[in-house]
Design a protein that fits this description.
With 118 residues, the chain is mainly α. It has one domain: Winged helix-like DNA-binding domain superfamily/Winged helix DNA-binding domain (Arc Repressor Mutant, subunit A). The chain contains five helices and two strands. β1 and β2 form a beta hairpin. The mean pLDDT is 92. One of its GO terms (molecular function) is DNA-binding transcription factor activity. This is GntR family transcriptional regulator. Keywords: DNA-binding, Transcription, Transcription regulation.
Length: 118
Amino acid sequence: MTQWREDQPIFLQIRQRMIEMILSGVIKEGDALPSVRQVSTDLSVNPLTVTKSYQSLVDMGTVEKRRGMGMYVTEGARAALLTHERDKFLTEDWPGIAARISALGLTAEDLLKDGDQQ
């Protein structure tokens, strides 16, 4: 059973899973996304939730609808998503991480050490 985070809408979490699958190469440029029906069944969510997540990928320009055929990853989608995810990390995630590092008094050397050496 899928565990959903409470702090983010489910459609965004599904979109993020699709983004991760594209970035990792599980779904390649030119490949079809899994059908809305299949994803909704696999994740036990309403098909409209999956449709909304897919539409947000279309709005980002990384997925295109092909009438009667489904949704397909566009050429250049991986590079665009990589840029998007890097920017999102630097603006949303990194400031909190940097503040935590500073609060703990960690140095770059501390961060680069192998975890077994600590």
